[in-house]
Amino acid sequence: MSSRSIPDEGGRPARSGGPHPGVLALVSLGIFLASLITSAILTGGQTFVSPFAQAEQVAAFFQQNVAATRVGGMLQFGSAVPLGIYAATVYARQLRLGVRVPGPAISFFGGVSAAIFLMFSGSLTWLLSRPEITTDVTLTHALAFLAFITGGVGFVVGTGLLMAGIAVPALILGFMPRWLAWTGLVIAALSELSFLSMVIEPLQFLLPLGRFGGLLWLVAAGFLLPRNRAAANQEPRAHASGASQMHRASRTAP
């Protein structure tokens, strides 16, 4: 019997189905990194302007870097698609693993929210590449703040919920190494606290931590999360068999 097909309660084969979540997370991370690298190349190595800079400086940056802003917004929008599929795939897999606590629903809500916020931020960034928009300094500044809050706080808080909804059941049921589950919980907690940066600006360091740390954790979790109950039980059985063999060997040793 392959790992992709096990009998369900009615004796019929139950297929795991769906794309591999680890690959989806890698694709999302790769597209997002491509947006950063492409923007850096097209701007000649300039860092993306902060919305907390002067309004005239913000408007000037977008007026002078139309291609970088447009391509960056497009790729940011595109990176949200595999993330949303990841959330749906992991939700279905957790249900197939027999998780009957709020965790799967929380992770699904968080993943979909993060994807939608990222799409919205990418769309706003694309708008900032339009010359007819950036001629209005006040409007440009407002859109820059909105792109920051949706792609920053909104995305990171949603990603934190996605991670927490995966890490808690995985920790309790042993679906992944305990250190990885605890790492996910720590990053998820810091990601949730990032909303405080809306009024406490020094806490903005939590945003890149939650963004990059969260995506890297989702990659690892996507590859390690078992496909089904049979696969989840294989490792504990292997550990038990190994312990039994060691115990027998110790009893027969001279």
Account of the 3D structure:
This protein is mainly alpha-helical and 254 residues long. It has helices at 21-42, 55-64, 66-96, 103-127, 131-134, 137-173, 178-193, 206-224, 229-252, and strands spanning 5-7, 13-15. It has 9 helices and 2 strands. Strands 1-2 form a two-stranded antiparallel ribbon. Helix 3 packs antiparallel against helix 4 (103-127) and helix 6 (137-173) runs antiparallel to helix 7 (178-193). The two termini are 41 Å apart.
User: What is the distance, rounded to the nearest whole angstrom, between the alpha carbons of the first and last residues?
Assistant: 41 Å
Query: What low-confidence regions span 5 or more consecutive residues with pLDDT below 50?
Result: 1-14, 236-254
Basic shape: elongated
In the sheet with the most strands, the strands line up as 1-2
Number of helices: 9
| Rg, Cα atoms, Å | 22 Å
Largest sheet: 2 strands, antiparallel
Proportion of strand residues: under 5%
Helix content: over 70%
Number of DSSP strand runs: 2
- Determine the mean pLDDT: 85
Structural class: mainly alpha
Give the ordered list of helices and strands. Answer: EEHHHHHHHHH
Summarize the SSE layout with pairings.
Layout: E1 5-7, E2 13-15, H1 21-42, H2 55-64, H3 66-96, H4 103-127, H5 131-134, H6 137-173, H7 178-193, H8 206-224, H9 229-252
Antiparallel strand pairs: 1-2
Helix pairs in contact: 1-3, 1-8, 2-6, 3-4, 4-6, 6-7, 6-8, 7-8
